[in-house]
């Protein structure tokens, strides 16, 4: 719990706590019961950043002014305590503890987060500082800005007012002392290495001078104040000296952890002896008892420590219970009010401490104890009047209900509408189930609509939900991406590009889809991106990533071209070699027209002709022999000669016929060839 949102009242009777959701709760430190609870209308959009109780009681009049009697005026002069709440939007809320309601809202003073508030000790004036580097002085009665001035070159984180009400001290990193009348810087101190988180004035009776003849700086001459910073384990003590030009601290307190709250209490003696309690980030209280009488050469360490822890057991180690804040009682006894636990259930205890010994309180863990249901909190949120039969949905019961059919009507009973039935019958439940089954269910593989995809992308970018973004970026259809990007709000274009750049670096396996999304976004929203002044810085990661991945593109393209040239040459050489091998190879089958058949035919013809010629020669020889026989045998008869003549004639006929047959065979062979 931040120290500026958990503050005890000046008398220690109440504790004001602002929860992280902006709800203000006022607890009674005696009974430990919450007295009031208030929820501002803008508690979610403008959360509370700091709280300040009024140092004095203010009289706020309501309604038109009218003449009152003396007795009535005295009875109505009862002052009320006011709590001022600074918000992150720059506005200030004034809450009345007596009325339990909001008095007014101060607007128009700051443009940024309000960091600290402080009340003037003598009049109805409130001071506020903000991240906008200004300090504003407010008039509480009319709710208007009384004065506003620039107090630092950076944000003003803390401030405090002197008990006399003549100076105000502000701090960012450096510390400045201002004159409230002239708004001039009286003194400057070096401050801390980090931002100052808290300033506290030390009230000593012998250090203030309220004479009218003295100057403002002389009136606070010798006053002390303390400061602590964020992340710094040292508390500095400063002294305002009109004649001194020293800007460094005079005393330093060392702590084992970062401080979160500082409380100062004076001893009731003449010496400038004080008690200082510091609540650290670890939940402990460290007590100092320095004597402020000049500069100290060595840092001072705490004298005692107060802490709270659980009992523990053999199986469980004791757990520390953090202390939220503490406060001294201004009396002779060394008593202190300690608030420990959590903002939901704080526990209040009065302890007696010693400056020489440590104190450890063994208590039960309040987070494990149940809240008392009988304790009713005065919640200022007005709840509408509802019937007893109405079921109110709480944040834990927001599941969608099943479809129902109400067949019964309502009847009037004492001018109130009440339902005749609280539960559905069995027939109505069956009808409801049939209606639910009749509703067509969408398929899981069905392509999502563009409107739903744009809504999912918007929700994923605003909530930075990785699961939603992964579901959206898995789609790579260009028309779907184009319609989705067209319906996306313009302020989400740059977050979309940054998310795509991160995914391209971290998830290279999905780089193809991310590249398609990036291309379409740049193409459709070029005109808007050109109007962004920080476009180069915003898209530097994307540009460097693309440049690093494309540095080897030129070399790879050249290598690709060379490889294509080499492969084409190799292919041409292989084709020429195949042509040569084809021309030199022997044929599997070759047909040639040779003269062997003609020679055979001619030889056959010649052989047949020679045979016939031989026959003729034989016949001539036989004739010659017959003639010789005739000559030799002249004595043969005519019959015998006649018969020989017929035989010769037949032989001659036979020879001529055989010759004709041979010639026909030769002619037939030639035709066949």
Task: Please describe what this structure looks like.
Helix 4 (450-463) packs antiparallel against helix 5 (466-473). Among the domains are: 3-59 and 79-368, 7 Propeller (Methylamine Dehydrogenase, Chain H); 450-549, no CATH class. Strands 21, 22, 23, 24, 25 and 29 form a 6-stranded mixed beta sheet that branches. It has a 5-stranded mixed beta sheet with strand order 1-2-3-4-30, with no helix packed on it. A 4-stranded antiparallel beta sheet has the order 5-6-7-8, with no helix packed on it. It is 31% helix and 25% strand. The chain has 673 residues and is of the alpha+beta class. It is elongated and about 155 Å long.
Key terms for this structure?
673 residues, alpha+beta, Methylamine Dehydrogenase, Chain H, 14 helices, 5-stranded mixed β-sheet, 6-stranded mixed β-sheet, elongated
Task: Please provide a brief summary of the model.
By secondary structure, the protein is of the alpha+beta class. It contains 14 helices and 32 strands. The N and C termini lie far apart (125 Å).
Topology overview:
Blueprint: E1 6-8, E2 14-18, E3 24-28, E4 34-38, E5 48-53, H1 70-76, E6 82-87, E7 92-96, E8 101-106, E9 114-119, E10 125-130, E11 134-139, E12 144-150, E13 158-161, E14 167-171, E15 175-179, E16 185-189, E17 196-202, H2 216-219, E18 224-229, E19 234-239, E20 251-254, E21 259-266, E22 274-280, E23 285-288, E24 304-309, E25 320-321, E26 323-328, E27 335-341, E28 346-352, E29 359-362, E30 378-379, E31 410-413, E32 416-419, H3 426-438, H4 450-463, H5 466-473, H6 478-487, H7 493-506, H8 511-524, H9 526-530, H10 535-538, H11 540-549, H12 553-584, H13 596-632, H14 638-672
Helix pairs in contact: 4-5, 4-6, 6-8, 7-8, 13-14
């Amino acid at each position: 719990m931040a120290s500026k949102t958990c503050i005890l009242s000046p008398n220690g009777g109440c504790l004001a706590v602002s929860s992280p959701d902006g709800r203000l709760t006022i607890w009674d430190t005696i009974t430990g019961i919450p007295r009031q609870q208030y929820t501002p209308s803008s508690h979610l959009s403008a959360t509370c950043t700091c709280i300040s109780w009024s140092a004095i009681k203010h009289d706020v009049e309501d309604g038109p002014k009218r003449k009152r009697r003396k007795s009535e005026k005295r009875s109505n002069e009862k002052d009320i305590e006011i709590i001022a709440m600074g918000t992150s939007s720059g506005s200030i809320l004034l809450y009345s503890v007596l009325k339990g309601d909001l008095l007014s809202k101060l607007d128009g003073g700051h443009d940024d987060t309000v960091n600290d508030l402080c009340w003037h000790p003598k009049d109805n004036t409130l001071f506020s500082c903000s991240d906008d580097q200004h300090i504003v002085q407010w008039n509480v009665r009319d709710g208007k800005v009384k004065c506003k001035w620039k107090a630092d070159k950076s944000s003003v984180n803390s401030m405090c007012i002197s008990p006399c009400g003549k100076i105000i001290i502000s701090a960012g990193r450096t510390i400045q002392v201002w004159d409230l009348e002239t708004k001039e810087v009286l003194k400057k101190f070096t401050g801390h290495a980090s931002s100052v988180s808290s300033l506290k004035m030390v009230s000593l009776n012998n250090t203030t001078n309220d004479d009218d003849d003295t100057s403002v700086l002389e009136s606070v001459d010798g006053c002390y104040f303390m400061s602590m910073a964020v992340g710094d384990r040292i508390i500095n003590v400063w002294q305002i000296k009109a004649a001194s030009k020293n800007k460094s601290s005079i005393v330093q307190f060392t702590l084992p952890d970062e401080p979160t709250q500082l409380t100062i209490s004076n001893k009731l003696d003449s010496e400038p002896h004080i008690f200082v309690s510091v609540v650290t980030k670890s939940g402990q209280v460290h007590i100092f008892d320095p004597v402020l009488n000049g500069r100290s050469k060595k840092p001072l360490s705490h004298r005692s420590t107060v802490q709270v822890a659980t009992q523990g057991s053999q199986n469980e180690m004791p757990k520390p219970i953090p202390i939220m804040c503490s406060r001294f009682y201004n009396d002779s006894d060394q008593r202190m009010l300690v608030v420990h636990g959590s903002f939901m259930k704080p526990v209040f205890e009065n302890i007696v401490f010693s400056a020489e010994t440590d104190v450890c309180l063994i208590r039960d863990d309040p987070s494990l104890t149940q809240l008392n249901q009988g304790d009713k909190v005065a919640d200022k949120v007005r709840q509408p009047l509802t019937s007893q039969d109405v079921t109110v949905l709480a944040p834990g019961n927001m599941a969608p209900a099943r479809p129902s059919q109400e067949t019964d009507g309502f009847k009037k009973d004492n001018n109130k509408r009440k339902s005749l039935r609280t539960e559905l019958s069995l027939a109505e439940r069956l009808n409801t189930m049939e209606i639910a089954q009749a509703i067509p269910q969408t398929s899981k593989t069905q392509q999502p609509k563009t409107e739903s995809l744009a809504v999912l992308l918007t929700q994923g970018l605003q909530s930075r939900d990785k699961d939603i973004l992964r579901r959206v970026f898995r789609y790579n259809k260009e028309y779907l991406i184009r319609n989705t990007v067209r319906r996306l709000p313009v302020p989400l274009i740059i977050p979309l590009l940054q998310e795509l750049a991160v995914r391209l670096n971290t998830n290279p396996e999905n780089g193809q889809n991310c590249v398609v999304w990036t291309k379409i976004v740049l193409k459709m929203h070029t005109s808007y991106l050109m109007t962004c002044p920080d476009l180069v810085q915003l898209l530097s990661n994307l540009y460097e990533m693309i440049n690093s991945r494309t540095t080897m593109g030129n070399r790879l393209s050249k290598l690709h071209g060379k490889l294509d040239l080499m492969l084409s040459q190799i292919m041409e050489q292989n084709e020429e070699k195949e042509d040569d091998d084809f021309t030199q190879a022997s044929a599997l089958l070759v047909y040639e027209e040779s003269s062997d058949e003609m020679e055979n035919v001619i030889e056959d013809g010649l052989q047949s002709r020679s045979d016939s010629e031989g026959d003729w020669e034989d016949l001539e020889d036989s004739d010659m022999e017959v003639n010789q026989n005739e000559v030799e045998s002249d004595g043969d008869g005519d019959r015998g000669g006649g018969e020989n003549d017929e035989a010769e004639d037949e032989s001659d006929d036979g020879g001529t016929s055989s010759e004709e047959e041979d010639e026909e065979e030769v002619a037939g062979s030639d035709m066949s060839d």
